[in-house]
Amino acid sequence: MHLYIILISFLTSHFVLHDFHVSKSDIHYKSEKRAVQITINVFIDDLELALSEYSNEKMSLFSDSEYEKSDSLIDVYLQDHFKIAVDDLPARPYYLGKEISDDLSAAWMYMELENVVEVSKIQLTNTILFKEFEDQKNIVNVKMNNKSKAFFILDHKDFAKTVNFD
Q1: Which distant-in-sequence residues (6+ apart) come within 8 Å of 126 by Cβ?
Q2: What is the pLDDT, as a whole number, of residue 56?
Q3: Which pTM was predicted?
């Protein structure tokens, strides 16, 4: 009986509603790789809701019935809602893909800017899930060569920041 309860908890954990709406983003400039690596984490159900505005298809991310163009839609969504500029030049990060979190409730999405020789500042705008949720908060951590440079909690009133690397 105990095993049955654990199994049901595990299988339904993906479908449990959450009381808060948050994303977490890491922006990491790695000078030795000449790259800005971006990782974004959001709840799967929230991401599916946001993507539904880009398509009339049911997303069902990370399932056998996942919409075949979901990665393209995620790329477009991130380009619209996660903007970045390096030294005042707008940049379009390359979408690398996504994976499911260990607890099966969230998606990790990966992007990268290549051939970034130097960075003196990064400007970012993060409006991920703002259209869907009034209480949405977007946490952003910015690093340079494994050293933290800035940490922000963005909301509807404060969603754009500049980080100086000098």
Answers
A1: 23, 25, 81, 82, 83, 138, 140, 154, 159, 160
A2: 83
A3: 0.86
